[in-house]
Amino acid sequence: MVSIELDERLVQDSYPVTELPLCQLRLMDDTRFPWLILIPRRGGVSEVFDLDEADQQQLWREAATVGKMLKTLSGGDKLNVASLGNVVAQLHVHVVVRHRGDAAWPAPVWGHGEAVPYDLDSLAAMRGHLLAQIEVLTLR
């Protein structure tokens, strides 16, 4: 498995969940939104087009599969998938489930209010739910 150095902001703002075939999967530290981050394990990559075609397809496959799982797990109304990179240049893809009436609805989640961090119990529970669901997916 290829290892890469993560941007410090990604490390500070999220928790590791597991390794997928291409990406490290991380949980954003904000309980207001079911929010995962996919970070391809490829060095020097800041844009999707920096990946070769096979990795681009794998990234989309992982984002779609993880997004469907997270939306089902959280009973969300809409799935948002985005790669911004304005603050963190390292390629990473946000997978965020939205609920009508959530803290930012219908606006984007970025920059809206203050994050509500996970406590140790809720973090362990969320990681456990995610890992249980990922085990049944064909991504691993």
Automatic annotation (TrEMBL):
Residues 36-105 form the HIT domain. One of its GO terms (molecular function) is catalytic activity. Transmembrane segments: none annotated. Pfam families: HIT. Gene3D superfamilies: HIT-like (3.30.428.10). InterPro entries: HIT-like (IPR011146), HIT-like_sf (IPR036265), HIT_Hint (IPR026026). This is Histidine triad protein.
